[in-house]
Amino acid sequence: MKKQNILPISTLIVLLGGQTIINREIRHDFDLIEIAKEGLPKQALDSLAKQISFSNKEMADILNISERTIQRYREDQRLDKDASAKLIRLAKLYELGQETFGSLERFNGWMHSHVPALGGKRPTELLDTSLGYEIIERELIYIEHGLFS
Question: How does 105-136 read in b/e, with b if 16+ C-beta sit within 10 Å?
Answer without folding.
Answer: eebbebbeeebeebeeeebbebbeeeebbebb
